[in-house]
Structures are given as C-alpha cells and as structure tokens.
Amino acid sequence: MQKKKVKTENYQNPKERILNKSIELFYEQGFANTGINQIIEESSSFKKSFYTYFQDKNSLGLSYLELQEKEFLNYMNKMMNKYDTYEPFVRSWISLQRKMIRRPKYNGCPFALFTNQTNDSSLFRTKIKSILENWKELLISFVDRLKANGSLPKGLNSNLTVKKMILYYEGALQSYVMTGDELYISILEEELLKLAKK
User: Fold this and answer.
1) Structural domains in the chain?
2) What is the pLDDT of residue 9?
3) Dihedral class, residue 63 (left if φ above 0, else alpha if ψ from -120 to 50, else beta)
4) HEC string of the chain?
5) Phi/psi of residue 47, each to 5°?
6) pLDDT, tens digit (0-9, with 9 covering 90-100), for 100-150
7) Tens digits of per-residue pLDDT, 22-72?
C-alpha cells in the first residue's frame, strides 16, 4: 500500500522530512533511480542530517520498508477488525485497490516494486520475507476467525488460502501496472471471493 504524500512541514525534524521524501521518491521513481542527494535536496535537509540518522542509502531503504509495512499492516488489521464475514472484507479491499490505481504515479505494491529493484540484496530480501510472513500471519488469523464464526468453511486450509490471496493480489496488481487494464482488478475480486466457496 503506497503511503500518501506527506507535505514537508516546518515543524518536522530532518529525519521525518527525509523519511517522508524517501517514501514519495522510492515509490514513484524506484529505489534504484533515487539518489541520496535528491532526497536531501527535496526534503530541505543537509547531508550531515542525513548521515546523523542513516548510515547509507540501504539503511534508509530498510526504514522505508518498515514504514510501508507498518502502514499496510495497520490498514489491513483495521479492515479485518471491521468485518466479521469474508465477502464484505474482500469488496472493501477491492474498492480500495480501485481507488489506488487511479492515483497519479501508481506503481502497484511497494514491496513487490522494491523487491524487483533490489533482488540481489540479501539485506532487503530478508526484510521483505519478514514483511510477507507478518502479512500472512495476519491474514491467517483473520481466516481462522471467520472459520470459527462460520463465515468461512471449517475445512478450508488457512495457510493455502492465504497464499492464494497474496498470489492473486500481487499478480493482479503487477498485471495492472504492466497493462493498465482494470479487468485484472475485477478478476482479483472474483478469485478472492471464490476462495470462500472451497
């Protein structure tokens, strides 16, 4: 989930300004295409400030991933707590995706985008795997809760169901980014809803 652009305010400290600008630039331009000097300049910071808070661009990249994870998992958790049945949850999630793809400079899942640009880095690969595991655990707990309340079939394999949810989600967003065809989002909705019937 892309973090909304946060305006650089005078009251923000340099670390907040640098992080906010990196969230914007890493998502819109990509990690590989964004340099430290651009972040420093566009966040109205100084090089000394950057190195006070971050050892290098990689440490900033890890902070970026942590912020994206926090926002994404918080949002997913709120949605899961809001719904006691599966279909309204799916419809709400898809509704959000339809809004997101209409934003300028939409590039899909920030974690997939980051992974594609840094796949040779074991540091980032380890962090992204951890994010994916945390997301899976959150979804599994949600599926288990819906199985317990009878909203989902009791015989449903929670782990396999969640892996399919993530597969369909990531595949649909990547396909949309490559083609601009919103049909992929509709297919995502259909496939997610089908999972409840197995």
Assistant:
1) 56-197 (1.10.357.10)
2) 47
3) alpha
4) CCCCCCCCCCCCCHHHHHHHHHHHHHHHCCCCCCCHHHHHHHCCCCHHHHHHHCCCHHHHHHHHHHHHHHHHHHHHHHHHHHCCCHHHHHHHHHHHHHHHCCCCCCCCCHHHHHHHHHCCCHHHHHHHHHHHHHHHHHHHHHHHHHHHCCCCCCCCCHHHHHHHHHHHHHHHHHHHHHHCCCHHHHHHHHHHHHHHHC
5) -60, -40
6) 999 988 999 999 999 998 877 888 999 999 999 999 999 999 999 999 999
7) 999 999 999 999 999 999 999 999 999 999 999 999 999 999 999 999 999
